[in-house]
Design brief:
The protein has 434 residues and is α/β, with parallel strands linked by helices. It has helices spanning 36-48, 78-86, 105-118, 145-165, 221-230, 241-257, 279-289, 295-306, 334-347, 351-355, 358-361, 372-384, 399-415, 428-432, and strands at residues 8-12, 53-56, 93-99, 123-128, 171-174, 179-181, 191-192, 197-198, 214-216, 233-236, 266-275, 366-370, 390-395. Bound molecules: flavin mononucleotide.
């Protein structure tokens, strides 16, 4: 596998650097987090650095774990959030997350197309099927992953048909003849499926820049199949190189089975980095960001991710394959459970090693801790192995970590020809090379 393209880089605006005890630092600027101005400044910084896009994950429930000792100024609707950012930026892409499990597709098609208009062709849609939230939509208990994906496929199909139902070419604006739009080019979609009945057409024409790029998150067998049939990019949980090689190869062959170019899907893992001037400081930053995770919390997280209870074992006991629970038992996210299951099967680690895994202490993202050079080498290693097309930056530990990313790490990537110095286009499609 060879790396033949510049990296595609997004920045998550979910304030990951405030996670854990990050917000408690005297220099955290935590009070500013409750104001949109804070995010607008960050968006401008990311645009100045020519990043491909800004990104925001979204959950439709308030986790009790995010109350009390976690930094939480609430989680605004990301599409509305990006509508505000759209007017303050000109080129950077805006990738919002919208669940297909609880929303009506007509509303979502309209909101996303509206964001595309407001931003002049810079919207992107991260498609998720949600892991919780059914109680907030009169849909309890949570539908099974199979049902959620079946719904996601139909939902996405409806949204795309709605976007096509009112093409931009339908706008004529001929003052002389008095024809504003060509009625024949606007059509109903007459959709009637297992989950939705939607007549169409949409209330607004598609933006002239072309369709909205689709991202997808969720990498179980069904999730990958879904991604390989429609996605332009996948927001991947890739805790290590090994899982990256497996994911990349699998997505390539699935894309081909769907009659697509094997490289059509950009693999963009979350990169949770802890950067500091020295390696010691960086490790200290990483340690303090996780200091709130007691042994009880780690065991509880392991139970919730994999249904595995190791609380009666010693930290240096070995975790073997035969200790793994039944693979068919239901879990919150099959992606995260499968990653951990594979890690245990391949490495038979100690209990302590399991309890520090990214699947247990975080969201299974790729964690890189060290100096600018250390993290740079980590990125180059995965790029050269051909497993990533870029990454979504999740700065960790402190604002300083993010500052080093912008001021030192990105320039190093530019110097090596791995990242752009100028935007070539002004739409997300153009940045992603779609
Ligand atoms: C990297 C990653 C990011 C995700 N981000 C979100 C999110 O922002 N909001 C959400 O509701 N679900 C999110 N999910 C959950 C997925 O959409 C999906 O519901 C879940 O992983 C179950 O799908 P699976 O069976 O394919 O694992 C994410 C999953 C992964 C792997």
């Amino acid at each position: 596998m060879t790396a033949n393209r510049q990296l595609c880089i997004g920045l998550s605006l979910s304030a990951t650097w405030m996670k854990g005890d990050g917000w408690r630092r005297p220099d955290s600027d935590i009070e500013k987090m409750g104001s949109i101005d804070y995010y607008i400044d960050l968006a401008k910084l990311a645009e100045k650095a020519k990043l491909d896009f800004l990104f925001k994950a979204d959950y439709l429930y308030l986790s009790p774990q995010l109350l009390g000792d976690s930094a939480n100024f609430g989680s605004p609707d990301p599409t509305m959030f990006f509508a505000a950012i759209a007017r303050e930026t000109q080129r950077i892409g805006l990738v919002t997350t919208v669940s297909t499990t609880f929303n009506p597709p007509y509303v979502v098609a309209r909101q996303l197309q509206s964001l595309h208009w407001l931003s002049n062709g810079r919207a992107g849609w991260n498609i998720v099927t949600s892991i919780e939230g059914a109680d907030n939509f009169g849909d309890s208990p949570m539908p099974s992953p199979q049902e959620r994906y079946a719904k996601a496929m139909e939902f996405t199909d409806v949204v795309r048909k709605l976007w096509d139902s009112f093409p931009n070419e339908a706008i004529v604006i001929d003052r002389e003849s008095g024809i504003f739009s060509d009625k024949d080019k606007v059509s109903s979609i007459h959709h009637s499926g297992d989950f939705f009945s939607v007549q169409g057409p949409l209330t607004l024409p598609a933006h002239r820049s072309g369709s909205i790029p689709l991202f997808q998150a969720g990498a179980s067998d069904t999730g990958r199949n879904f991604a390989s049939s429609i996605a332009d990019a996948i927001f991947a949980a890739m805790p290590d190189l090994e899982s990256g090689v497996e994911l990349r190869n699998d997505l390539r062959s699935r894309a081909q089975e769907h009659g697509r170019n094997p490289n059509a899907i950009k693999v963009l893992p979350g990169l949770y980095f802890f950067l500091a001037e020295t390696r010691e400081e960086a490790h200290e930053l990483h340690k303090s960001a996780h200091a709130h995770l007691s042994m009880e919390r780690r065991h509880a997280s392991l139970m919730s991710v994999l249904g595995l209870d190791l609380s009666s074992f010693a930290l240096d006991d070995c975790v073997t394959t035969d200790m793994l629970p039944d693979p068919n038992q239901s879990v919150r996210s099959r992606t995260h459970a499968e990653l951990l299951r594979r890690y245990i099967t391949n490495h038979e680690p100690t209990v302590e090693e399991v309890l520090i895994r990214p699947e247990v202490v975080g969201s299974a993202h790729w964690v890189s801790v060290g100096t600018v050079e250390d993290v740079l080498n980590d990125i180059i290693e995965r790029h050269e192995a051909g497993v990533i097309d870029g990454f979504i930056a999740l700065p960790g530990g402190s604002e300083e970590s993010m500052k080093l990313f912008f001021e030192k790490l990105l320039p190093q990537l530019v110097e090596r020809g791995l990242f752009r110095t100028e935007y070539e286009g002004s739409t997300l499609r153009a940045h992603l090379g779609i």
